[in-house]
Specification:
Arc Repressor Mutant, subunit A, Tetracycline Repressor, domain 2
Length: 205
């Protein structure tokens, strides 16, 4: 019975997040009420409030779902990275960027970033920062995997370089979401240019 209850809870949670994602995207974060989300998800407003106290909690759960899925997909790149540093970095970063608008719009990302910055000591901000740290660690893991294969210079500190690469790609992503007119192809092009530079620094002479 416990397993069945957990399954029902997971199903309701998924429906709430899917409904919220669609409504935030279509109507804007500020215009949507939790009661509206509950109606779209076909659950009671009380159930929705039991799972999420605020709209911010719902938005954070959507961001978490996005990051957790992309980290899981990135694990396959870490397990079997392409031969060259440039290709390996590009594949992982492209995966991050391509998945970034699956559940969230640019406006939703801006709202999430603003909520995180506005209250840096809040649980929202702490969780958002932790999600960024997950992605940074995965970039570091890719650098370490390339070092183990001899494709990347072994004397470079993988954790430090992974952080540097992540901060660079994250800054580019922030510029992308703050510019509504910027297409994803432009983000990929800018990223590939940076990736070639990182690869030149990492590839053994």
């Amino acid at each position: 019975m416990t397993g069945l209850r957990e399954q029902h809870k997971a199903d309701r949670t998924r429906r709430i997040l899917q409904a919220a994602s669609e409504m935030f995207r279509d109507q804007g974060y500020d215009a949507v009420r939790i009661e509206d989300i509950a109606q779209r998800a076909e659950v009671s407003a009380g159930t929705c409030y039991n799972y999420f106290s605020t709209k911010g909690d719902i938005l954070l759960a959507i961001v978490s779902m996005e990051v957790e899925e992309v980290v899981e997909a990135g694990g396959a790149v870490i397990a079997a990275p392409p031969a060259s540093v440039a290709e390996a970095l590009d594949r992982l970063i492209r995966l991050y960027y391509d998945h970034s608008l699956h559940y969230l719009s640019k406006a939703m990302w801006r709202t999430a970033m603003a909520l995180s910055i506005a209250a840096p000591d809040s649980p929202f901000s702490q969780r958002y920062t932790a999600l960024d740290a997950m992605l940074a660690r995965q970039v570091s893991d890719l650098v370490a995997a390339l070092q183990q294969r001899g494709a990347a210079r072994g004397e470079v500190e993988a954790a430090v370089l992974g952080q540097m690469i992540f901060h660079d790609l994250n800054q580019r992503f922030m510029a992308f979401v703050t510019d509504e007119s910027m297409p994803l192809t432009a983000l990929h092009h800018a990223s590939q240019t940076a990736t070639r530079t990182w690869a030149q620094m990492l590839t053994p002479a």
